[in-house]
Amino acid sequence: MSDQEKKAVDRAEISKMLEKKAPEMKRILNYCVHCSICAESCFLYMSHDGDPQYMPSYKVINSLGKLYKKNGNVDHEFLEGIKGMVWNNCVLCHRCYCPIGIDIPRMIDFTRSICRSQGVFPKLDEGESWL
Amino acid sequence: MIIAERKPFEEIKEMVKGYKNILNVGCGGCTSICLAGGQKEVNQLNAELKKENPELNIDSLVIERQCNYDFFVDLDEKAPKYDAILSMACGAGVQFVAERYTSIPVFPALNTVFCGVDRNVGWFEENCRTCGECVLGDTAGICPVTRCAKGIFNGPCGGTRIDGSCEVDPDTPCAWTEIFNRLTEQGRVDKITEVKPPRLWQNQVRRTLIQEDYKARYAE
Ligand code: SF4
Ligand code: SF4
Ligand code: SF4
Ligand code: SF4
Asked: What pTM was estimated for this model as a whole?
């Protein structure tokens, strides 16, 4: 069993982290108009034939957005489940453009921090890749 | 990507000696991938330092990149609370951290060794010395700067051994023999006779690159 499976999720810690970023999160959840301009500026989305899993807004709404809606009330499985979305599906290149000013990579970066705080991150030494 | 390895523990211990409140900052980029300075390695180093000195307060923070200030939001908040910072990024990252918090000493926990490729998990090979004038198009994709002991642009040097190894080291294949063989395989061995003029070894000075489309933005 690796370190990552051992650690129990500290929900209070996650919700504290979420609270600090609440204004930024509200912006994406309330103001994203699904215009898909961010999608077209993401090279990963374009190179995956428009697979929605790579759409910048989709990645944030389905990882951080869910975490926020559940107020951090998630289990280890949930974090493992979003791990691929925030590591494999985004390289944090900061090239996506949102006309409303939502900083998508910043949100993905923050989601990674939440995962890290709970001991969830790519097990590179066990052959897991994130690209 | 950039490949680094951890400095010997004794050296790290010596650098941070006397500091009681340290933040060890990992990098979620290259040094995570080369298994030198990611989350796991940060945790490991902290445990070792703590074991050595139980009085020490050492915390950890992994930011996704230390070479881009867009990722420094959490670090900006934490850094001022410490009297020293250890960075587990490459040398570029360490300098970027040091430049941002000039009143706090920043120490490198890694040695940055090269720009290379992943051969397998934990196995990396140097492939490029970032010379700034890439000749791979004429050398069948084999870098003479990195892989020829003399770094010559017009080879081979005349010291190639009969078995195709380099005169400098019998265990190292001669890069120019490999270039010759691959160019032959591709039917363009004539490339090897094109003499390259002496090059400007400009990488002795610090280089800055602004991509063509962005020149106007930063002009002034
Ligand atoms: S930061 Fe992520 S979402 Fe934005 S363009 Fe790069 S890969 Fe796509
Ligand atoms: S700081 Fe260095 S190790 Fe980290 S992502 Fe940037 S180049 Fe790679
Ligand atoms: S010639 Fe070699 S060192 Fe120079 S840029 Fe090309 S690969 Fe890198
Ligand atoms: S033998 Fe080949 S690799 Fe060695 S120095 Fe000469 S040309 Fe370079």
From this structure: 0.86
